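Case 342 in the screening queue. Each case pairs one protein sequence with one candidate compound; here the compound is iron/sulfur cluster. For every case the pipeline is the same: read the inputs, emit a complex structure as tokens, and attach any notable structural observations.

Predict complex for case 342.
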Amino acid sequence: MKTAREIIETYDGPHVRIMEVCGTHTHEIFRLGIRKLLPEQVELISGPGCPVCVTPVSFIDEAIYLALEKGVTVCTFGDLVRVPGTKMSLAGAREQGAKIRIVYSPADAEKYAREHPEEQVTFLSVGFETTTPAGCLSVKSAKEDGLSNYSILTANKTMPQAYEALKGSADVFLYPGHVNAITGTHLCEALAEEGVSGVVAGFTAKELMTALAVALVKFQEGKPFFVNCYPRVVTQEGSREAQVLVDEMMEACDSEWRGLGMIPASGMKLRQEWQEFDARIKYQVPIIEGKPNPACRCGDVLQGKCKPSDCKVFGKVCTPQHPVGACMVSGEGACSAYYQYS
Ligand code: SF4
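Case 342 output:
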């Protein structure tokens, strides 16, 4: 019997485009040297699974509005600080006097609000099904703690609608294992019935090689397929606890994705009974139309329409030190992976 590595290295089937939906997969596949094993006809393309990358420019502009116009202390994961907004990044706003604090979790932001009752504090809640429950928990804690100075600015997104929007951009999806750990695999099974093939992959070298080998073997059979190659973590039903928590506190809303545009019902916002913690409502944030740098092709990169190296400013004007777009800033971004490893 062939090993996963042998299956990958000796693949001589038809050309296949495999989309790494998850930014961590993109980085790990580069870092582990797996790309070097792939024959020419196996093409890996990046997808929309880096939460910072898909967060639109308008969200950065809203956060800057809160910080500069409303004097709110903005708590955020570090990656978002250097993502360019229309006029400046949060780092730029900090230079103009805005209070921008880097935190490692929404719980840290809630704790900061509790310890600083004299400040209004907003957490920038971005990410997919994996991170949304933690944002909800922070709001729940704030309610229990009786805080009136804590809120979240939501840009939380859900993957199912993105898969729908990306149908046809790849032959096989490499599904993000950590998202499926929460959502389960029902959706992937349903997509396979609609003709969309994919495998759920873990994050170690062995798990990634196995997932790719399974994808190549199944692809040659010529029929749509779904295989869970990360069964030690991903179950069919996912995390019921997380699903119930999010459902209790949040509801679906239309959401803008960088590159993919507005996707109906692909976002999450707090339900009406939790709206006192919704920064957009609390501070009456106006609708802001963000404008990305026209030279940046993040939108195309996130849809697998081009590789980062196809962007004219890649590695020249746009580098991790001086990022022009979100995909070069984020530790999960495809442009930063290409810059670091290729
Ligand atoms: Fe955007 Fe920079 Fe990537 Fe080009 S290289 S797509 S400018 S992030």
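Case 342 observations:
- The chain has a mean pLDDT of 94.
- The first strand starts at residue 16 and ends at 22.
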